[in-house]
From TrEMBL:
It is found in: Endomembrane system. It is a multi-pass membrane protein. The keyword Transmembrane applies. The chain crosses the membrane at residues 47-65, 85-105. This is Putative membrane protein. One of its GO terms (cellular component) is endomembrane system. Residues 8-70 form the DUF202 domain. Keywords: Membrane, Plasmid, Transmembrane, Transmembrane helix.
Length: 108
């Protein structure tokens, strides 16, 4: 009897790149929605939210490019994203959530 592997490590990098793409597409949609909200109501909170969502989109694009580069160089690469990149994504997400709360609280 031959032992079969429990998972296929060859597909993991491809799934990771696809996950980065989905997340970046979501951030692009968020940026467009924030742009629409800012164009309707020119408040400072909405401008900050629009700017931060654009920064988040840029950081996610950098992360996606970094991951795609690692997969092209070594398809079996299991390295994770750099910690400053993950910190920047988390910080932008928190700042966007806070500015959205302030924006909607001030408009109510």
């Amino acid at each position: 009897m031959t032992a079969t592997p429990h998972r296929d490590p060859g597909l993991q990098p491809e799934r990771t790149v696809l996950a980065w793409r989905r997340t970046t597409l979501t951030a692009a949609s968020l940026t467009l929605l924030c742009c629409r909200a800012w164009s309707v109501d020119h408040s400072t909170a909405r401008a900050i939210t629009f700017t931060l969502s654009g920064v988040l989109l840029g950081v996610l694009c950098a992360g996606m490019a970094q991951r795609a580069h690692h997969c092209r160089v070594d398809p079996q690469c299991t390295c994770q994203a750099k910690m400053p990149l993950l910190f920047a994504i988390s910080a932008c997400g928190i700042w966007i959530g806070t500015s959205l709360l302030v924006s909607f609280a001030s408009s109510a």
